[in-house]
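Sequence design from tokenized structure. All designs in this work follow the same two-part layout: the structure record, then the generated sequence. An example of the structure record is given first.
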């Protein structure tokens, strides 16, 4: 059961909460480059069409190594350009711990979300008096969220939470090519899974803004 996962891995994320500062690159994950064309990912190179399962235009490839584990990698496209990379695996306690620890080395945990609410980690961190208090608040939210069978941890790469009032402020103050990673735990029992999504939220938001500024064709 997901609700039985150990919360000790959150301590790692908290330790690194105010310690990041590296610049992000335009690689979503390993050598998968943001906006690379759909035509690059063919059956001849091991990819298959998984659009129906993923939603939208998508290509998948199995048995990709990450954190000493095997993942299915799902590539999501918009306008035949790569915008998101998702790593998918059945839930495993060790994998969860590795994912939290691995992401926390270069990413900052900024929020946690379940099906009904969000905990703004940046905002909470400014209000607590100690790391122990912060750990307790995050652990409590985690355990409550997991009883509903779904929890998402959102991380931002190269972002320091110092001086920021909340997660939105941290994102808005970051460079446009700041990469986000969402660690998703969902499902129960044999259906429980781990999903790690990499994207560039500000670049995608700016695309929408620019599209909205274009003149509307008369009709």
């Amino acid at each position: 059961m997901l609700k039985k996962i150990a919360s000790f891995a959150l301590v790692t994320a908290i330790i690194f909460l105010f310690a990041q500062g590296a610049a992000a690159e335009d690689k979503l994950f390993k050598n998968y480059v943001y906006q690379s064309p759909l035509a690059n990912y063919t059956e001849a190179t091991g990819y298959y069409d998984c659009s129906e399962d993923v939603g939208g235009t998508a290509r998948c490839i199995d048995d990709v190594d990450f954190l000493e584990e095997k993942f299915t990698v799902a590539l999501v496209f918009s306008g035949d350009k790569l915008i998101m990379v998702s790593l998918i695996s059945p839930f495993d306690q060790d994998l969860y711990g590795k994912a939290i620890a691995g992401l926390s080395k270069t990413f900052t945990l900024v929020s946690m979300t379940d099906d009904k609410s969000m905990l703004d980690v940046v905002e909470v961190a400014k209000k607590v008096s100690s790391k122990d208090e912060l750990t307790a608040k995050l652990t409590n939210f985690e355990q409550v969220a997991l009883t509903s069978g779904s929890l998402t941890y959102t991380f931002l790469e190269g972002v320091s939470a110092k001086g920021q009032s909340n997660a939105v402020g941290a994102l808005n103050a970051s460079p446009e090519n700041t990469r986000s990673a969402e660690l998703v735990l969902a499902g129960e029992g044999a259906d429980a899974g781990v999903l790690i999504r990499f994207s560039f939220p500000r670049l995608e938001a700016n695309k929408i803004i620019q599209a909205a500024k274009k003149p509307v064709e008369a009709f």
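The longest strand covers residues 57-66. We note this feature because it recurs in several other targets discussed in the main text.
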